[in-house]
Amino acid sequence: MNFRLLKDKLAANLFLLLTLLSLATVLVIAAGLYFKSLPILQNSSLPGLLLSDKWKPFKAEFGFLPFIMGTLWVTIIAIIIAFPLSLLASIYLSEYAHPRIKQFIAPVIDLLSAIPPVVYGVWGVLVIVPFIQDRLAPNFVEFSSGYSVLAGGIVLAIMIFPLIISILGEVFDTVPSELSDASLSLGATRWQTVKYVLLKKSLPGIIAAVVLAISRAFGETIAVLMVCGNITESPHSIFDSCYPLPALIANNYGEMLSIPLYDSALMFAALILFAIIFLFNAVSRIILHRLERRMS
User: Fold this and answer.
1) What is the model's pTM?
2) Quick one: 234 exposed, middle or buried, by C-beta within 10 A (0-12, 13-18, 19+)?
3) What is the pLDDT of residues 184-203, one digit of tens each?
């Protein structure tokens, strides 16, 4: 009996150690990025770095506002496109689709998740960019190269589409079937049951799915890099080119590090991206916690 208690205690301590190790890894990454960013933080003020749009590395002028805005624009457009489609597809698969249709579509969704990002990027260059340049943009603006915020948002939306569907499918499966059966037995239609039972009970899980999708979208690099145009200007419309933070890091790290402070500038870009994702997830967890308490 004592040996079993000892094993149980050792397992609990081991799990605690692994949990603390995971937390320490996040702190080590943040600390490493911060110390690597110190030279540029000592050379320029934080408001100047975050709010300036001047990017002239040879003059030691590093304004990250265009890159921050490009990242936010692309991510917001991707979520606006992907979330409604993913939600409706998940509802259909969960409540309306025949089991044979589910068996056919599930592997297709898994296949979309397994496609490398560079393939999405090539597809975006060959299909989405020409479509925006020749067909869509002329109806709204005088000229657009097609390499734009919209192109990045569309490609990114397709990339996170299977992720949201998979998570929402698991969330909907956790809702007790007895609740839906009770709603239908009282005379409610299938859509009323979805609206007032399924979606209401799944709301925290839906928000969590969106949070995970946005976190994935913030850090996507190759596909977005290939279709956004990579121009260091803040976009003013969805047809303008942009330069997201991940693309800045991937494009320049290792090639222009001979320029003073450039290494530190790229590390600061990574720190900004880390901080955006961390703060977004923290705020989302607070909202989720309050929502769960209110629903309980």
Assistant:
1) 0.88
2) middle
3) 888 888 889 998 888 988 88
